[in-house]
Design a protein that fits this description.
By secondary structure, the protein is of the alpha/beta class. The protein contains 6 helices and 9 strands. It has a single domain (about 50-175), classed as Rossmann fold, CATH 3.40.50. A 7-stranded mixed beta sheet has the order 5-6-4-3-7-8-9, sandwiched between helices. A two-stranded antiparallel sheet has the order 1-2. Bound molecules: adenosine monophosphate.
Length: about 180
């Protein structure tokens, strides 16, 4: 089962980046090319029936499988990045995360009004990051059709927070 393979590969790092946080490290997954292909296929599989024009990936780990997902779906990929990283004109949203706060940005010409956007990140924690990403998509009059993650930390209730911003939330594994 893909869920077991992912759980075996994900590495827990205690007290990173702050005391009390158990960081779910996906870098061991990236060393296993076959597992990466299986994860991409599983991400595509759970999105069957969802119409997607664009995948928006959240910096930085959301770029890894976000781009693979966009390629597999044969749709464009757009990066949502932390403040000051995108070179062209941007729009901004503030967000609170499990272990801090940040400003996210999206190029103002990244999306066309009405486009159906899937937001992807590696992990859903409190949901603050992906809510900010969804607000960026809405600011450009595009539509969030779903949010996809490899991992959801269900005990932090991010899925509940997301309900007002996306019709569907997908995750391959939960803790
Ligand atoms: P949040 O906004 O609280 O849902 O946090 C989600 C963002 O922070 C994602 O981009 C994750 O990669 C990262 N993140 C938060 N908590 C963790 C964790 N325990 N392990 C790994 N990444 C995390």
């Amino acid at each position: 089962m893909i869920e077991n393979k992912i759980k075996q590969a994900v590495r827990d790092i205690a007290d990173f980046p702050k005391p009390g946080i158990v960081f779910k490290d996906i870098t061991p997954i990236l060393k296993d090319a076959e597992l990466c292909s299986e994860i991409t296929a599983a991400l595509v599989n759970q999105l069957s029936g969802v119409q997607i024009d664009v995948v928006a990936g959240i910096e930085s780990r959301g770029f890894l499988f976000g781009m693979l997902l966009a390629q597999a779906l044969k749709v464009p990929f757009v990066p949502i990045r932390k403040a000051g990283k995108l070179p062209a004109k941007t729009i901004q949203q503030a967000c609170n995360l499990e272990y801090g706060s940040a400003i996210l940005e999206l190029h103002e010409d990244a999306l066309i009004p009405g486009q159906k956007v899937l937001i992807h990140d590696d992990l859903l924690a409190t949901g603050g990051t992906v809510v900010a990403a969804a607000k960026l998509v809405s600011q450009l009059q595009a539509e969030v059709v779903g949010c996809s993650f490899i991992i959801a930390l269900e005990f932090l209730a991010g899925r509940e927070k997301l309900k007002d911003y996306t019709p569907q939330t997908f995750a391959l594994i939960s803790y």
